[in-house]
Each structure stands twice: as C-alpha cells, then as structure tokens.
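Look over this record before class:
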Amino acid sequence: MALKLKSAKKLFIFLGKSVLALVETVVFAIIPKPRKNVAGEIVLITGAGSGLGRLLALKFAQLGSVLVLWDINQENNEETCKMAGEAGATRVYAYTCDCSRKEEVYRVANQTYKAFLPAMIANDHGHLVCISSSAGLIGINGLADYCASKFAANGFAESIFLESFAKGQKGIKTTIVCPFFIKTGMFDGCTTGCPSLLPILEPEYAVRKIVDAILQENLYLYMPKFIYLMVFLKSFLPLKLGLLLGEYLGAFNLMDGFTGARKKN
C-alpha cells in the first residue's frame, strides 16, 4: 500500500511539473523570454580572429562584456581586439592560441573546457556555448569527418548540461548552436537545393540569433527553423521517404561545388 501511494505521489508530481513546463513554454512562445545582462561578464571566444568569432566579439563588446579572445592568427586576433575596443568594450585581451593543441591551451591560460567547470560549479555561475552544426544532427554525404566531429560536439555539450542539471547546478547554462551553412568562407562553393527552406545564412543574422539564444538561456538553437522539422521527421519517417525528402531538398548535392576557404598567401 505504501509503495502504491509513493508511486502515485511521484506520478502526480511529474504530471504537475509537466503541466507547468508546458504552460511556461506556451507563455514564452507568445512573450519573449527576458534577456540576461552580460555587462561585466567574462566572455571567452575561440576563433575570434575572423568569421563568427569576430562578429560575436563585436556584439558582446557592445553589451559591455569583458572579452578574452583566442585565435591561432595573431594579426587577425589583434585586429578583432582593436575593433572590439572601438565597438565600446572597456576591457579586451587577445591571446594567440591553437585550440587544437592541448599544450597551447595550457600555455595561454592553463585552462581547458574541462578546467572551467570546477570554478563554475563552485560559483554555480557560467554559460557554456557550443557552436556546432546541423551536420551534427543529420549526416551529409561528402562531410563524414566534419559530421563525426559535430555529432561528438553535440553529445559532449548535451552531456555536460545533463551533468550540471543532475547535480542541481541551476546557475550553469548551456547553449548548443546548430546552423546550416553560413557565408563565412568555410563552405565556399556549397549550394542549397531549396533556398526557401534551407537558405545559406548571412553571418550577421546568425550572430544575432546566437547572442539572443545566449541571453535568453536557450539550450538549443537550430538555424533556419526548418532544421527543427527535419530532426523531427528523421525520428519517424520511413527510410525511403526520408531519402526522397533529401533528394527534393538537394541534400545529396550540397558539397558538389565545394572549394573551401581560400588561404591568404
């Protein structure tokens, strides 16, 4: 009898919390979530010398954050540092760092993704942002190695979020960003078979959406919104229908004209 009462109580608590969660979701779908203030917060940006990294640095400079900029290209990173100062940042620090080399990361800051967490846990404060890709949600032919790395990034970031949640670290936030191709030069030559549903994104638009997702503390951001539907359809569509949809969207020819970013001499 006691066991049945305990199970019933657990079920009612679950149902009550579920209803509240659904109501909250509906409310915030109508009324935008309040944005948090990041003025004075330390924002570390890797790959800050160009592309999204540079644009994110300029955006957070306008928001009054303290910027720590990492990039392998010293000249580009210092240029971003100068631009961030002109954009209104009061404190900006630029460091040359190859984030693919562990010894470089330790040399610059004696910190890695893993080493940030103890301090965040101790203070119950922080926000981890993973710039992944839609290629980490759905496989793309011709991008096997890239897809593998992005699937891994998604899984890692999601696991870190769940570990923080399970330990009751409500002050540690996570945002996982999964965009379609962005016009940063990395995927030069790539095309889309259905620009109305899967447009190649403008960098400025992508950065606005990323910063907004961070300020609203959203866990996931997929761009464009059609990616949400694709992930949903992938979970239940029969294989043949899924492949037909891929053909219709031109998904099997995205990489046909790929040239990649051209390196400067």
Observations:
- The longest strand covers residues 172-179.
- Strands lie at 42-46, 66-71, 92-96, 126-131, 172-179, 220-223.
- The longest helix spans residues 2-30.
